[in-house]
Amino acid sequence: MGCSRTTILCLWLGLYCFALPTSAATPLEQARKLYETGDQQLEDYELKQALASYQKALALFQKNKGTPEEQAQALIQIAVVHRELHGYPKAQATLKQAEGLLATHPDRDLQIEIEWERGLIEYESGRYAAAMKFFEKAAELAKHPEADVIKRILIITDAAMVELEAGHYPRAKAWLDEAGA
């Protein structure tokens, strides 16, 4: 087994040597890592840190030609954080930006998330009728065979909750029946 001169010198001097990576992460890889960090921070309810991570990821996606879907997803997550911080106008404006990206690059799953998030914003703002319009649209989009079934059930559950709070018990039951179907 051959050793390089550097390895022998390091061993002789009692130094620890290690291999350095030959290339650093690309800006898009950094953006994706920041996005994942934002997801973890949001899960831990570290909202301001999550917002900063998502915003940095978005900036890198935009500067380095990340896909429109990556940019839209980052915008949606920024809107989620704004909603959690009760910044409803900022959340709505951010969702509008995401929707603008999807106008030229349609993505059903991201459109579902946008409509669902809009419903949550309206619900938290006490505008139940408006919330229901967005939940209905999200649930309809989520009926597609390739859509995420769990996401659809969560949307339906949110819709039922809004109907319950509005005192529309038969409609709430109908939503819950649909979730069980």
Task: Describe the fold and architecture.
With 181 residues, the chain is an all-alpha fold. It is built from nine helices and no strands. The radius of gyration is 23 Å and the shape is globular.
Rg (C-alpha, Å): 23 Å
Largest sheet, strands/sense/barrel: none
Provide the helix percentage: over 70%
* Contiguous uncertain segments of 5+ residues: 1-13, 15-22
Features:
single chain, 181 residues, mainly alpha, 0% strand
Describe this structure in a few short sentences.
The chain is an all-alpha fold. Helices cover 76% and strands 0% of the residues.
List the helices and strands and how they pair.
Elements: H1 5-13, H2 27-43, H3 47-63, H4 68-84, H5 88-104, H6 108-124, H7 128-141, H8 149-165, H9 169-180
Helix pairs in contact: 2-3, 3-4, 4-5, 4-6, 5-6, 6-7, 7-8, 8-9
